[in-house]
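User: Could you check the structure of this?
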Amino acid sequence: MSRPEKTAVQLRAEELDTIAAVLPIERRDELAELLTDQDVETLRHLVNQGMGDNTLRALTSDLAYLEAWSLASTGSPLPWPAPEALLLKFVAHHLWDPEKRMADPDHGMPERVSQSLRDQGFLRATGPHAPDTVRRRLASWSTLTKWRGNSGAFTSPALKSAIRLAVRATPRMRKRKSAKAVTADVLSKLLETCGGESLRDLRDRAILMLAFASGGRRRSEVATLRCQQLIAEPPVTEEDGSSLPSLAIHLGRTKTTSGESDDIVYLTGLPVEALNAWLAAAKIESGSVFRSIGRWGTVSRRALDPQSINAIIKQRAVMAGLDPTEISAHGLRSGYLTEAANRGIPLPEAMEQSKHRSVQQASSYYNNATRRNGRAARIL
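Assistant: Sure, the predicted structure tokens are below.
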């Protein structure tokens, strides 16, 4: 008896499987039904081009959302290239005025469209999208269009004007990725919760100290850190003659670097001791540095994922009596620069460690720290 031919959806699912090792996909079957053959081929091409895992994950997420939105709003998959009218429709559906919506139910995203997206798990918020989210999805749309060999109307004056006017009509306060910067005082409270000698305490202490002291490393960089990236350096001699252990971390590819330049940050003193204590206790000599720990204290061979890094930090915040909604992995990054500013460390020196690409972004932490501690803020 001949075997039944595979459907297009099954074939797409298998194609997605071939890139899952590089691009972790949790909703493979759903994506196989939603994405087109060309979509999957585009993703495969991006994988072959060596694009970073996080960028690929974001592009896949945005592509899935855009396809779902197009089907719900027009009844058809995304056209390539997208006409300007469809881009303007996307802006109108996602950046709208809540007050006007109360008086005019047809304003913004139609209810049938939002309900369809909500049923599929693509939409959770009930209000308009954040402008940054809309801009990011449009940027992903533009990137995917270019990779298909097309050009779109993403830089058209009409689209830029529509976004600018929509944002102006519905002003909203920009939210920080982490409501609270994890400065040294906050970090010390988190570290107090992992002062024991259990494997979890040793691992979490090493994660907190390394992530902060290495310049506020992103959670993805901490999660994917491997032993071969750690190079022992000669001890640093203090003024009193004592010596401190030193370590170089070769970052490789990050969110803002391609990996071609050998970006290095350094750890000295207590963070190195905490890291070495974890590696020794977990008997890790190669492979991933930070790993999950089983119920019976078994250390996994697989690396923690970035979400786990964030979950660990929030769990430690709860144990420290802090509000976990105000603290996240990104708080270590913002906290490092804030702490550097409070201690009078020059911005260029701090940026050498944090590897911030934008001077404007990094300097904002310095300006805020200066203003908060300055006389103008303490006039009464």
